Each structure stands twice: as C-alpha cells, then as structure tokens.
Amino acid sequence: MSFAATVLTLYPEMFPGPLGLSLAGRAMGDGKWSLETIQIRDFATDKHRSVDDTPAGGGAGMVMRADVLASALDSVADDRPILAMSPRGAPLSQARVRELANGPGVTIICGRFEGIDERLFEARPIELVSIGDFILSGGEIGALIVLDACVRLLPGVMGAPSSGDEESFESGLLEYPHYTRPVEWEGRTIPEVLRSGDHAKIAAWRKAQAEIDTRSRRPDLWERHGGVRVQPPSGARHEKED
Length: 242
Ligand code: SAH
Known about the structure:
single chain, 242 residues, 7 helices, binds S-adenosyl-L-homocysteine, alpha/beta
C-alpha cells in the first residue's frame, strides 16, 4: 500500500516542486507514494470563477469561500485524514508526522489570502496544522513540508532504516552533533571520544550532548522531557567536555 497525497491549491504548479527531487522524488518514481493536486478554482460556480470574497465584519484582504472549498474537498471523499495548513492550527510534531506516515495518506488544503471561511472547519472533519509561529503567504510550502516529513519515513525511502531512530524529537530531545572527516579543520579536531571506537563511551557522550543542546536551545522541549527549565546561556555552544 502506498501513501497517497492530495493537495487542494490555487497553485498546483508548485507541486511536486522540491518533492520531485532527491529521496522523495525517487520514492515517488518507485511508487512508494503519489501526489495529486486539485485546482480549487475548478470548483468555483460563478462566471468570474471566484474562490474568495471580502471578509465579513470588514478588514483587509480576502477570505477563501467555504462553499467552493467544500465542493473541491467533497470531490476527494475517502477516509484519509484531511489537513488544512493554518497558523491557527496545532504545531506539526514528529509524532503526528509518524502517525500520518503510517496511514493511507493525507489530503491537504492550502489557504491563501487572509485564510479560509471558518465554517468549512465546522462542517468537515479537518485538522488545522501550523508549521510554526510565523506567517507564510500561502499553505503550499507548508504542505510540501508536511509531505516531505511524511515521505522520508515511508518504508524503504531512507537509506539506513535506523537513521531515523535517534533523530531530533524522536526521543524528545534534539539530536547530538555530527562530525566527519577531515579530523582537523581550521585547527578544530573531532572530539576524541568519537575516534575512540568505544561504542558505550560514544553513546554516553552523544546522550550528554543531546541533553546539553536541548537544555540550552530548547528549554521548552527540555522541560517537557522532564528536565528543569533553564535560561539559555548567551552565545554558548557546548558546555566544556571533561
Ligand atoms: N490571516 C491569517 C494568515 C493567512 S496566511 C492569520 O493571521 O492567521 C495565508 C495562508 O498561508 C493560510 O491560510 C495558511 O494556509 C498558510 N499559512 C500561513 N502561515 C502558516 C503557518 N505558519 N503554518 C501553516 N500554514 C500557514
């Protein structure tokens, strides 16, 4: 069973975009996932093919119409989860990405303008998803992000199946820092322990680094992980190795 993505958008030309390249592109070529776009404007009913109108109550910009979006959405009636990209949604998490990747696929609605008539979200089972606390000009790049995160988790897409396990967020912590050859670069050497060949010591070092970085850069994650909230030290990178 492959992962099927359907994206409702006013800009179908933005897809597959970067997802046609590299890992995701190869996986698509191999039939591990598929991507279909639906042009929302095809479901407009008036002679101007309008998909938006002025905001009720006044204010700047335009609002996407619930009726047109519902027709577009109802043309994809199936049991895949329906997401709408929105800064008012729940922040996307790796845990949610994993659930989505384990399912049959996803339908994603991309907003434009000031957003979407709220009644659509009352009338259809739609999950609002945010990719962060900032405003994009449209949901398309957000949809690409959701799909990229899902596709790399599909079986057989990533080179080494284990390379996902220790990644940032999977354990509730940021991942440890990485190094590769040359051993010395601009006077900086790869930490000795990583060259020791002692796997237990390496694992302990990596765990400690993951904790140090999480504590200083992401006190919110650290606190959720069960650590104590600390103020990030200004400009600090790693704490000293002993
Ligand atoms: N006026 C809205 C922002 C609209 S931005 C507000 O203040 O909440 C236009 C569209 O871009 C949105 O409908 C949404 O689909 C998309 N978008 C913008 N920022 C986003 C974010 N952080 N996460 C997910 N989608 C976003």
